Amino acid sequence: VQLVESGGGFVQPGGSLRLSCVASGFTFSYFHMCWVRQTPGKGLEWVSCVDSGGAPTWSLPSVKGRFTISRDNAKNTVYLQMNSLTPEDTAVYSCSKGGLGSDGPRGQGTRVTVSS
User: Fold this and answer.
1) Are 21 and 95 in contact (CB under 8 A)?
2) Which residues contact residue 3 at a Cβ distance below 8 angstroms, ignoring those fewer than 6 apart?
3) Distance, CA of 27 to CA of 35 (rounded, Å)
4) Where are the beta strands (DSSP E) in the chain?
5) Are 10 and 68 in contact (CB under 8 A)?
6) How many other CB atoms sit within 10 Å of the CB of residue 16?
7) Measured CA distances, 78 to 14, 33, 40, 69, 116 (Å)
8) pLDDT per residue as tens digits for the range 15-64
9) CA angle (31, 47, 3) in 5-degree steps
10) CA distance 45 to 32
11) What is the DSSP letter of 99?
């Protein structure tokens, strides 16, 4: 299993980023997928999850209405569109194979920094 994230970077408060995670080594279309984030202060947070068909199944309350998860099974890719970013969204974001709370493999992550 390999999960490779991209799209992170530095953005000012109120800005947007779109994260991508390309999966390989398993039948992507069979599995739920999630985005998680990690910071030294808050630890691991489950940000958003999507089922195998593309329907969202979980969204962290603090990101509801701002972040949108989606997937393209033809491209083995899951996305996280992040809008109206705040400094509290600063973290390393990783994609995770499986549903909410699963112990599946995760990628190395992509760093998102929100600062003025």
Assistant:
1) yes
2) 21, 22, 23, 94, 95, 96, 97, 105, 106, 107
3) 18
4) 2-6, 9-11, 17-24, 33-39, 43-50, 56-59, 67-72, 77-82, 91-97, 110-114
5) no
6) 11
7) 23, 7, 25, 7, 28
8) 999 999 999 999 999 999 999 999 988 899 999 999 999 999 999 999 99
9) 45
10) 17
11) S
87: which 2 tokens? 């400094």
Quote the pLDDT of residue 2: 97
Q: Locate tokens 């970013």: which residue?
A: 85
CA torsion through residues 51, 80, 64, 92, sign: positive
